[in-house]
Amino acid sequence: MSDPLLRIAEALERLAPAPQPAPDWAASAYLWDTDPDRLIPVPQVNRIPLNLLVGIDRARDTLHDNTRRFADGLPANNALLWGARGMGKSSLVKAIHGDLEATGLKLVELQREDIQTVGRLLSLLRPAPHRFVLYCDDLSFSHDDAAYKSLKAVLDGGIEGRPDNVIFYATSNRRHLMPRDMIENERGSAINPAEAVEEKVSLSDRFGLWLGFHACDQDSYLAMIRGYCAAHGLSVADEVLRAEAIEWQATRGARSGRVAWQFFTDLAGRHGIRL
Known about the structure:
Blueprint: H1 3-15, E1 29-34, E2 37-41, H2 57-71, E3 79-83, H3 89-99, E4 106-109, H4 118-125, E5 132-136, H5 147-155, E6 166-172, H6 180-189, H7 193-201, E7 209-213, H8 218-231, H9 238-252, H10 257-270
Helix pairs in contact: 2-3, 6-7, 8-9, 8-10
């Protein structure tokens, strides 16, 4: 090779990114990072025990059964957890993974902003000797956002499709992952309204499980707080606990699992309890 060609080859080697080492599968949970593409181990997942999730029994049992079958190598469905904010959608995914962690099941979190890289992530997971729950929190799409098309091909379609060792769980406040006004606009302005709407809502059809989460009533809200108190050894007179919890939710203008945990965090702090 002549000197000019050698210099060009050396310059290209310097510009090209170094190949990434194979992932270390020692951890049970990972974050997907795209700068550069890599899986970052998570030493300790931020979650609460499964038995402390109150008021979502049907969704809990259905998703747990689905995940258990997947962990055992049996057929299972992708799942969309949709509905009221703060009602335990993401907490349920993480809690079920924690409950089944001993099976070797691994959790990989994919950020909404990185949806278009999901194909590269699946190429990394496909040959791995493990089973993965690929999880995206607060998944939704706005007008002119074409990223949903990347996800559609991976979930159900394309030549390769979803790897057998990967299942996809997403949480969203929207059942169809699109704003209602966006769907209505498509219906009103398209030449063929039915086809336009089908294109937008067909992504949610790729999920075999739709699990709805709805705002909780007062009894469930109080039961959540009592469960937290029992789990952390915090003893408070029930009439006092009830009055303070109701006042807290009134100031927030909402009742949810998140509001219950925020109240309990304040209560534990006032009583010197470390969480």
